[in-house]
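Q: Predict the assembly, please.
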Amino acid sequence: MTKANRGARASRAGATPYLYLAPAVVLFTLFVAAPIGYTAYLSLRRVKFSGLGLGKKSRTEIFVGLDNYRAALADGEFWDGWVRVLGYAAMVLTLMLGLALLFALLLDSARVRLPRFSRIAIFLPYAVPGVVATLLWGFLYPPSMSPIHAGLHAVGVDGVDLLSPSTIVFSMVNVAVWGGTGFNMLVLYTQLRAVPRDYYEAARIDGAGELAIALRIKVPMLAPALVLTTVFSIIATMQVFTEPTTLRSISNSVSSTWSPLMNVYGDAFVTGDLYSASATSLVIALIALVPSLGFLRLVRRRAFGEER
Amino acid sequence: MSITASAEGAGRVRRPLGLMPTAVLLLGALYCLLPVAWVLMAASKTRGELFSTNAFAPGTGLLENLSDLSAYRDGIFWQWMANTALYAGVGAVLSTAVSVLAGYALAKFRFFGQNLIFNVLIGGILVPSVVLAVPQYLLLAKAGLADTYWAVLLPSILHPYSIYLARIYAAAAIPDALLEAGRIDGASEGRLLRVVAVPLMGPGMVTIFLFQFVAIWNNFLLPFIMLADDHRFPLTVGLYTLLVTGANQPALYNLVITGALLSIIPLIALFLTMQRYWRTDLSGGSVKS
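A: Predicted assembly structure:
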């Protein structure tokens, strides 16, 4: 760029932010906006076969309105999948975020030994891909190799099949909790470290114990971070795919439509019905958005309303 | 035991309170390390030892497992490893660059449409990847890019949450006065970006890079949908196919286990060496004083 006078510099600064934002906006258009639009378009269409359905000409795409949505909503297996996933998500959210909060608060209280070791160890599963995490636990579940069963045997529990249709959901919850606690703990812990220490000193002088400080001061201060982690966790658990897909190769207890997202994958790539897949995936997106937006709104009123 | 002893020895009244928290944290640590310790041991076992010896005792077959894995289908495992490094490395570098540019622009300039652009980009956080993955595949297939490296790389670059983070980092780390002084001295915007903005955002950039690197390294759904040729697979999809094949051939169990171990070593190394960058504030953005 050449040297410019004041007037030219002002106009150049005017274009600069748009220039810097251009890559993000272009990528957003190509890989977020266009796919959403395309899904919405496909979800309203269907292929119609004429004649014997042979040859290219007999295959035409037609507009069918909301038929695909009606079909998706009428599919019993899809709703069974939701029931499974909602139960799964409720358990994962409670356990994972509960443990993450507990660990973060414990790490932040000064009176803990080996905090560095514990922090790194608990964060470590974040480095393990979902496929590998499922695979590791998958090998630990069957009795043939498992130290878990040896442990259960030691406390007098025998013959628990961790991969049976009735227990598999708990095994899956365990994989998700194991993999997700560390990351959420880190988010909450970093937030806690940013709080000035003298905040707590004042409370201690007033006679507040560690527990009271944790519950009355630290937890409320964590509210924004808790909202963030909860919303992300809701969105992630609702579209669980990797873990049940991987577990299928280890156990027969997981059906090919165990989670709604597996339904979409099956429609799109196994049966090749892109139109149903599109409608179903938009339904999943809406269902996942409702609780997270609802949660955001609820908490905003409760936690941030007072500050205003 | 020694904790109790030293606590009593120190004679501090409130010390024993630290026992429970420490025990709870150590239990958590143990739970998190258990599968990692198991795979470390299991990878060292021969096929016979795998089902017969103590789960947490080392075996004698590590080298054999490694050479078997390397020999499997002409070393395709190492191809997967290289692919993963390529996807995660290049993807995270590009992602960081895009996010930092966008975050800097949003934090340090005032312009028409600023809030609209920010809200639309950030709205992307709430879009579940399921809505995107299938149509992304169809659109890339139309462009002739499905089942290529681009199919995994391109959709991984935009990461709305990183833009949000970059905006927070830029707002906190770059003083307006410094930019103003530079402008008065006649520095071009490009020069301000290079000399002022990027160096000040350095630590934040490393954090964005690391989280994006891990996210791409661990991604399964996107490459699973995009790729058909297993020579382009990343580790996650490769190990998955190996596991599916192994379900009928228990002989492959050792390979799956050894592959699982090797696939997590690079990330664990990244964790331990880059530790201080994993602590940077994720949500509030306030730089700890």
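Chain B has two domains: 2-61, 70-175+202-279. Residues 70-175+202-279 of chain B form a domain with the MetI-like fold fold (CATH 1.10.3720.10).
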